[in-house]
Amino acid sequence: MSFSFSQGYKQLPTVDKDAGEQESLRRKGPRKSIFPLLRLTFAVIIIMCVSVPCVRMIRSRGFWATCHGAQRNSSTLAKLPSHYTLPSGDSIPSVALGVWQASKGEVGNAVKTALSAGYRHIDGAWIYRNEEEVGQAIKASSIPREELWLTSKLWNNFHAPEDIETALDQSLSMLGTDYLDLYLIHWPVAFKKEGNNVIDEDLTADPYPTWQKLEELVDKGKIRNIGISNFNIRRIQNLTANKLKYQPAVNQVELNFWNPQPELLKWSKENGLLLEAYSPLGSDKQVGKSLSVPEVKDIACKLGITPAQVIISWSVQRGTIVLPKSVTPSRIVENLEVFKIPQEDFEMLEQAAASHPPQRVVNPSSGWKLPFDVFDGQ
Length: 378
Ligand code: A2P
Prior knowledge:
This protein is an alpha/beta fold and 378 residues long. The protein is 42% helix and 10% strand. The chain has a domain at 87-293 and 321-328: TIM Barrel, CATH 3.20.20. Helix 11 crosses helix 12 (307-317). Residues 98, 279-284, 287, 308, 324-328, 331, 334-335 line the site of adenosine-2'-5'-diphosphate. Adenosine-2'-5'-diphosphate binds at residues 98, 279-284, 287, 308, 324-328, 331, 334-335.
């Protein structure tokens, strides 16, 4: 059956242009009323009152940068490495969807959106309490398991040697898989099994027994790579002073404009340890501030990309894996696109990030009532 565009449409009444003009001329006659003018002025004032704070709010969140001067077309920009190679030989995607703080009921859709946008790396943890929904979304995607990179983390309550495999099995079962690509010691802190946040001083001081157990689980085929998270240099050296069968594949730490940790980055590169950047945008607490940094906005304008893309690209260009979290479809898509920032802009951003006292978003030391600062003040 053929279908014509005009079908189903009613013709609009034709406007008699001449009559309309005559009418408007009649209105423009000498007996002008002041009311239309007043009404117009009133409307303009209302629009300005409503729009000025809105625009200010949007701009302060960094969503809209006013660009002056020539803008580049982002399609002409070089791409950054999409993967890194780990000591095991495995290839890990450089950008992941982070699911910390992605709540139940929204994390599944975020994962589905990410997978259809092209993400193949999901960074999760047992303690995020959303692994089941993440697993369901992965299953629904029908993407072959071997094409995905799944990371989880051993929570602080499960360091007792007999608990480690059980904790891993729980994550495997919730994610609906029989192996993890990467399993991390979530914190260099071991809690006692029972009793909230009561620390097990021996295991906290010496994570080697936990590491040995993780090595066994690699040999059993349940984990492909093992690593650490939130370890500072002293704690890494404390662990690697032991005779390890497998060296840590990565160290996942907070890295962003406010806490760029250049010394840790330099040391890690010199020692062949890949860093993963969590809270790269400064987390929900600092994201607005991060996207409003003048250098970030200037580079975004110049390159024709968004402020978030500048920060995420900068992270990859620094040689780290980056784990931006979002549950907003458009942002999830946006965050996967990383571009090479011209060297002088990259250095300017690096310098700007290092030119203020470091400011962490995440430090649970006092919340956990630790008798020490987990980062040793670094
Ligand atoms: P949402 O999840 O509501 O989209 P981080 O990755 O540093 O932890 O930052 C996460 C925060 O940044 C969340 O509040 C997230 O909001 C927000 N966010 C993620 N991507 C973007 C983006 N491209 N533009 C603006 N905000 C973003």
